[in-house]
Predict the 3D structure of the following.
Amino acid sequence: MLLLGIDTATRRVGVVLADEHGMLGRVELGGTSAAGPPRHAETLAPAIKWCMDQCGVEPEQLSAIAVGIGPGMFTGLRVGVTTAKVLAQSLRIPAIPVPSLDLLAYPLRHVSGALVVATIDARRHELYWAIYQPVPGGVQRLSEYELSNPDELVAELEARGQDAILCGDGVLRFPDVFTPLGRRAEIAGPAHASPSLAALAELARARYEREDFCAPEQVLPMYLRRSDAEIEWDRKAG
Amino acid sequence: MIATVTARSAAETQSVAAALGRMLRAGDIVVLSGELGAGKTTFVQGVARALGVEEPVTSPTFTIVQEYDASVPIAHVDVYRLHHIQELHDFGFEEILEDRVVLIEWGDMVTPVLPRDRVDVHLEMDDDPETRLITIDAHGPQWAGRELVLDPR
């Protein structure tokens, strides 16, 4: 079994290859300190090719394509999800969509006695976030996938009254907002800024083994920004 | 911070626009309102030229967004063809608003999704077919401490 994983929910472009024993290799570009416009469209396909070449993997050997579906950066998700779908479709293999917030939380599953809060910068002073609790073998999500300003997340954590460790680029963008939580909230730092490719390899492998996958065309990015509001042109014309 | 200017020709409208354009920096948002034919695109052309865009600037009515590389990256948006706010989210509007000068034609129709920090430009037609009354209202913390100087050079 060979899996290719892609996550582009943040500025970071991430590619990972894994087999049934674990990770074969990964490529990460566009870290937290990278400046300028994000370059998902320019770097993802070459990163996939380079990673596969270096690992000696041919496309025909792949068993499935795993992809982080966000929520996250719109332009990145559009590139990553489309690339994953096209690859899976043309190779006639299944896709394994994985929420990118889960990929942030999973590496912190060994934290004991604290909630794990995954956050991704949503622009416009907002965060995508979800709250997890470590359980044997993984993390269990306790909240919905949410979109709000950072203050609402602080209020939610205050209401829960438990210690929490916060990870992801969202919390790094607004570190001061979380100071009112004092020692109850710890920030996981840059090592936990991007959805984990090791987690993607691990979670996707488990999903593949229990055939928990889907057809490529069923993969959709997770956009939490919804608005049914109509633009009121009539009033304007009147 | 509000300024009102009377422009007696399209060229004067563009001069006013250029004066505003020279003050803009990445992250600034300019919302253009006014009836069809009021000169919203004309105004954008003036801003774009002031920022160093040499290619022709036309209204992206069908493409919704047109981007230009200039001294500051520019995104020219026209929401006239849109019917639902969701359509803005569907093309990543929040990300377009970052790191660029963003000019939005008919932007007054989508103010609920716009930051408070912005410049509202309203173009009003006059009895004289060439004349436009231009009201420029810059507001929000980004504009505190910045001066609105609109002397067309």
Observations:
- Residues 33 and 122 of chain B are 5 Å apart (CA to CA).
- Chain B has a mean pLDDT of 91.
- Chain B has one domain: 2-143.
